[in-house]
Amino acid sequence: MSEPRGVSSSLIMGTVPWKTFRRTPVTITTTATPIPTAVLTDRIGLWIFNVGTTNCFLGPSDVGSSNEPTLYAAQDRLIPMTDQITLYGRTASGTATLVVWEFA
Fold first, then answer.
1. What angle do CA 60, 55, 42 make, to 5 degrees?
2. Quick one: which of 78, 75, 71, 31 has its CA closest to 55?
3. Is residue 78 within 8 Å of residue 12, measured between CB atoms?
């Protein structure tokens, strides 16, 4: 019997067949910004890279600038997420540059 895998693990291992994917650069400031701004239909996950030097806080539309899940500079995160949910990003100050891969 194989080891059970979650969606994140399945995305990385390639066991969930992808129909399509899209790469989108997103600029995040101190105002909550959707990640990405346009959603890929039937999305099953996001792979977000912070390619800038400013930390980015992740959450719902009222995401704060502290005590939130943080995408640090030069960090990436794989998030299982459907197209029915919108993830937002915000910085405490400055601008973060993200590259978002959406999988469907």
1. 40
2. 71
3. yes
